[in-house]
C-alpha cells in the first residue's frame, strides 16, 4: 500500500489537482502500484500544486507506461512535459520508444528531441493540404457513409504523414472539410434505433441497451506505434542482473542483426503461439490482435505456431479449432508451424547447452526440486561432469530411463532474486505419443526452454506476450545468450480480463467436462466459438480489443458492457429486424372478417426507404394475433404503455387496436384471450407500440420456434477470485422458451443468421 505520513497530501486530492476527472482518480487509487508511480511522477515534476488537464493526462501516461528499464531518465522526460516541449500523446509514445531502446545508457539530447518532434511545428497549410489529399483519396467512401464515416481513420492517415501535427488543429480541419463536402446533417444522419423508455423489456442475451461508447483517445488510433523497427534491435533494451556474474545487457551484435535482416528482408515477423489444450477465448483475441495486427500494420508476417510440447494435454480437435477460429477472426497466418517441427533442433541445442556447461541432467523428484528451489539450494547433480550429463541425456532420448527419474535442467542462477532463474527444467521424459510427431520422441522440451529458441529459429522480430511472462524475460534472454542465438525484441502487455466470466483454461475445461455448460461453444462462455455461436461477429470483437489498446496496465478487468457496446454497434448495422412473441397471448379482432388476411410491409432497418423493397419483409395480419402476455394488464396506469381493458395500442407496422373484452380461465384470474377492435383508418394515436405475430391463415398457428435467452454466466464480476467459484454460477444464465411464435419469414433462417427481435434483443 501507499504509506503516507500525517502531513502528506492524500493521493486523491493530488490526482484531482493535476486535472484527472474524479472517476479516473478514484479508479487509480484502487491500484497501489499505479498510485505509487503517479505520486512519484507528480513529485518528480514538482507539480504538487497542480497543473492543467493536458499536462496531467501526460503525467498519468508516464506513470503507467514509462519503460521500466529506463527509469533513470524519467525526470528528464518530465522536464520536457512541464516546459511544454512534449505536449501530445504522439510525442510521448515516441519518447517511450526512444527510452526503451537505450535503457539506462546516456544519450544526446539532440537525438532525443529529434526522435520526439521537440520544437517541430507543422504549418497549418501543410496539415490542410494533407487533409485535402486524404479526403480526395477516400471521397467515395465518405460520400457513401456520410457522417457515419470513422473520423479516427482519417485522423490516423494524417498522423502517418505528420506525426507531430497539433491534434486539435487536425480535428478542426477534418470537421470543416466534412461539413464542406457533406453539408448539413440530414435526418438519416442523426437517426438512431428508436426505443420506448417505458416499454416492458423481456430478458435477452445479456446485451444491455443503455451503455455508452467508450471514448477513443489519440494514442488508440495506431496502437502499434510503441514498437521499434526490426533494424533497431541492436540497442540495449533489457538488463539481466545475476548474483555471480556481470549484468547481461540484452542486444544483438551488428553482425547478428545484419544476418537476421538478410533472412527477413527487414520485415516484421511475429507469432501467435497457442497451446492446443483447449478452445481459444476472448483473451486470445487480444493476443491475435497484437501479434497479427502488428505484422499487418508493418506489412510483415505472423506465424501461427502451436506450442505443442505437452502431448498429454493436446488433441487434434483443439488444433483444428484453433486454425479455423484464427481465420474466422480475420487473420491469415504467414505459415502454420509447430514447436514439434523443431524437436531435432531443440535436442541438438540442448546437447550444445550441456557441452557449454549450461545444463545438467538431474535426478531429483518434483518435490525435491520444489524444496531446493524454495531454499535456493543447488541440486546434488548440478556440478556433475559434462560427459556424464551428455551420456545420461542420450539415455533419456533412447528411452532407457523411467519416466520421472531424470530431467534436463538449465544451469542458471540459484541465488537470483527472480524465481524463474532457479535452474528451470528444459526436458522431461514422457512415454506418450505426440499428436503431431507420433512416437519418435520420449523426451519433450519445456515451454521455458523451447519458446525462446523457436522464436530465434523463426527469426521473430517482436516476441509479444502477456504480463505474467514478464518475470520469464530473464530466463528467455539467458538461454538465447548462452547458445549465442539471435535475440528477438520481447515486450509484454496486460492480459484481457472481462467481468462475470472465467478465462483460465483449467476452469473453462472444468465447466465443459463437468457439463456445467453445453460444450466449448456454449454461448454463455467467452470462448471465441461460444461468442460466434451467440451471434457475435469477429469485427466487433476486434473493435473491442482495439478500443482497449495495447497497455501494460496490470489492474484492469474490462466490464462486459464495453464488449456489448461493440457487439450492438455491429449488429445494429447488420442484423435485420423481425418480430417474435415469446409468451403468446391470443387477441381476437372482432371487427375483422374471419379468414381474411392482409400482407403488410415491415421494416428490416429503422431507416428503411420506401423505394427500397429489399429493406422490407411481409407479415400477415389476420383476425387472430398474438402479443406478449406481459404486454397486457387488467388494471391500467399512467406509466403503462401496454394493452388494458378499454385501452388502445398500436400494433407495429399494422393498426391501432382497442381492448373490448377479456376472457378469463376458470380461476377467474388467468387471462386466456383478449378481444379487440382495430381501427382501419389509423386515426387513433395511442402511445404504446407492441410487437405481434398473427395467424398466417385461418386455423393455422404461427411459426413455432424455440428461443434461448442468455444472461451472464456468473453472478459476481470476478468469480475467479472466489474460493467456491462454481457456486457463483447464475442459475438463470440460460432460459429456454419452447413455445414462442415467429413471423413466417423466419422459416428460412439458417444457422449463423442474426436478427433483432423487435423490443426483445438480438438473436
TrEMBL record:
Keyword Nucleotide-binding in record: yes
All copies of domain Glutaminyl-tRNA synthetase class Ib non-specific RNA-binding, residue ranges: 12-167, 170-243
First-level EC class: ligase
Region annotation (Disordered) ranges: 188-218
GO molecular function, one term: ATP binding
Domain Glutamyl/glutaminyl-tRNA synthetase class Ib catalytic: 268-572
Annotated ranges, domain tRNA synthetases class I (E and Q) anti-codon binding: 689-761
NCBIfam families associated with the record: glnS (TIGR00440)
Similarity annotation: Belongs to the class-I aminoacyl-tRNA synthetase family.
Protein name, UniProt field: glutamine--tRNA ligase
Lineage: Eukaryota, Viridiplantae, Streptophyta, Embryophyta, Tracheophyta
Amino acid at each position: 500500500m501507499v504509506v503516507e505520513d500525517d502531513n502528506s497530501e492524500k493521493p486523491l486530492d493530488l490526482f484531482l489537482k493535476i486535472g484527472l476527472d474524479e472517476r479516473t482518480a478514484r479508479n487509480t487509487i484502487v491500484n497501489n502500484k499505479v498510485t505509487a508511480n503517479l505520486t512519484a511522477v507528480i513529485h518528480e515534476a514538482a507539480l504538487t500544486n497542480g497543473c492543467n488537464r493536458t499536462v496531467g493526462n501526460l503525467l498519468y501516461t508516464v506513470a503507467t507506461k514509462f519503460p521500466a528499464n529506463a527509469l533513470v531518465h524519467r525526470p528528464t522526460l518530465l522536464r520536457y512535459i512541464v516546459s511544454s516541449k512534449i505536449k501530445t500523446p504522439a510525442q510521448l509514445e515516441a519518447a517511450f520508444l526512444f527510452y526503451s531502446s537505450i535503457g539506462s545508457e546516456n544519450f544526446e539530447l539532440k537525438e532525443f528531441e529529434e526522435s520526439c518532434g521537440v520544437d517541430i511545428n507543422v504549418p497549418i497549410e501543410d496539415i490542410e493540404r494533407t487533409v485535402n489529399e486524404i479526403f480526395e483519396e477516400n471521397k467515395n467512401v465518405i460520400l457513401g457513409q456520410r457522417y457515419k464515416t470513422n473520423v479516427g481513420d482519417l485522423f490516423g492517415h494524417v498522423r502517418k504523414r505528420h506525426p507531430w501535427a497539433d491534434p486539435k488543429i487536425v480535428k478542426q480541419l477534418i470537421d470543416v472539410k466534412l461539413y464542406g463536402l457533406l453539408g448539413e446533417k440530414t435526418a438519416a444522419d442523426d437517426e438512431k434505433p428508436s426505443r420506448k423508455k417505458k416499454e416492458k423489456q423481456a430478458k435477452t442475451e445479456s446485451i444491455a441497451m443503455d451503455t455508452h461508447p467508450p471514448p477513443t483517445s489519440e494514442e488508440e488510433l495506431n496502437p502499434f506505434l510503441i514498437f521499434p523497427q526490426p533494424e533497431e534491435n541492436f540497442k540495449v533494451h533489457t538488463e539481466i542482473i545475476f548474483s555471480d556474474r556481470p549484468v547481461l545487457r540484452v542486444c544483438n551484435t551488428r553482425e547478428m542483426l545484419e544476418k537476421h535482416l538478410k533472412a527477413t528482408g527487414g520485415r516484421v515477423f511475429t507469432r501467435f503461439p497457442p497451446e492446443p489444450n483447449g478452445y481459444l477465448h476472448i483473451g486470445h483475441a487480444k493476443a491475435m490482435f497484437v501479434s497479427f495486427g502488428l505484422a499487418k500494420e508493418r506489412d510483415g508476417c505472423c506465424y501461427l505456431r502451436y506450442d505443442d510440447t505437452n502431448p498429454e494435454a493436446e488433441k487434434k480437435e483443439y488444433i483444428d479449432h484453433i486454425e479455423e477460429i484464427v481465420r474466422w477472426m480475420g487473420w491469415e497466418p504467414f505459415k502454420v508451424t509447430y514447436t514439434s517441427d523443431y524437436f531435432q533442433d531443440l535436442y541438438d541445442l540442448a546437447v550444445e547447452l550441456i557441452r557449454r556447461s549450461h545444463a545438467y541432467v538431474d535426478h531429483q523428484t518434483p518435490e525435491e526440486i520444489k524444496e531446493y528451489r524454495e531454499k535456493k539450494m543447488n541440486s546434488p547433480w548440478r556440478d556433475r561432469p559434462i560427459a556424464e550429463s551428455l551420456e545420461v541425456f542420450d539415455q533419456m532420448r533412447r528411452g532407457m530411463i523411467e519416466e520421472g527419474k531424470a530431467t534436463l535442467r538449465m544451469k542458471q542462477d540459484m541465488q537470483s532474486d527472480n524465481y524463474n532463474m532457479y535452474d528451470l527444467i528444459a526436458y522431461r521424459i514422457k512415454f506418450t505419443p505426440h499428436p503431431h510427431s507420433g512416437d519418435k520422441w520420449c523426451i519433450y522440451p519445456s515451454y521455458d526452454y523451447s519458446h525462446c529458441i523457436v522464436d530465434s529459429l523463426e527469426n521473430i522480430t517482436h516476441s509479444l506476450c502477456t504480463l505474467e511472462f514478464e518475470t520469464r524475460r530473464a530466463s528467455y534472454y539467458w538461454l538465447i545468450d548462452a547458445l549465442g542465438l539471435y535475440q528477438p525484441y520481447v515486450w509484454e502487455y496486460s492480459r484481457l480480463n472481462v467481468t462475470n466470466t472465467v478465462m483460465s483454461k483449467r476452469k473453462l475445461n472444468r465447466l465443459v467436462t463437468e457439463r456445467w455448460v453445453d460444450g466449448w461453444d456454449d454461448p454463455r462462455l467467452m470462448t471465441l466459438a461460444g461468442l460466434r455461436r451467440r451471434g457475435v461477429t469477429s469485427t466487433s470483437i476486434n473493435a473491442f480489443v482495439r478500443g482497449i489498446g495495447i497497455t501494460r496496465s496490470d489492474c484492469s478487468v474490462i466490464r462486459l458492457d464495453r464488449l456489448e457496446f461493440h457487439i450492438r454497434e455491429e449488429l445494429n448495422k447488420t442484423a435485420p429486424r423481425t418480430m417474435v412473441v415469446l409468451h403468446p397471448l391470443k387477441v381476437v379482432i372482432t371487427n375483422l372478417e374471419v379468414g381474411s388476411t392482409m400482407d403488410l410491409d415491415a421494416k428490416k432497418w429503422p431507416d428503411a426507404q420506401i423505394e427500397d423493397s429489399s429493406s422490407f419483409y411481409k407479415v400477415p395480419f389476420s383476425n387472430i394475433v398474438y402479443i406478449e402476455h406481459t404486454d397486457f394488464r387488467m388494471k391500467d396506469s399512467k406509466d403503462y404503455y401496454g394493452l388494458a381493458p378499454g385501452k388502445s395500442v398500436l400494433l407495429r407496422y399494422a393498426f391501432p387496436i382497442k381492448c373490448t373484452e377479456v376472457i378469463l380461465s376458470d380461476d377467474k384470474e388467468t387471462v386466456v384471450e383478449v378481444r379487440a377492435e382495430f381501427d382501419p383508418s389509423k386515426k387513433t394515436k395511442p402511445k404504446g407500440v407492441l410487437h405481434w405475430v398473427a395467424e398466417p391463415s385461418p386455423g393455422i398457428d404461427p411459426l413455432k420456434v424455440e428461443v434461448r435467452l442468455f444472461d451472464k454466466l456468473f453472478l459476481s464480476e470476478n468469480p475467479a477470485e472466489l474460493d467456491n467459484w462454481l457456486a457463483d454460477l447464475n442459475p438463470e444464465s440460460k432460459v429456454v422458451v419452447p413455445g414462442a411464435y415467429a413471423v413466417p419469414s423466419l422459416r428460412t433462417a439458417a444457422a449463423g443468421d442474426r436478427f433483432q427481435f423487435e423490443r426483445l434483443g438480438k438473436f
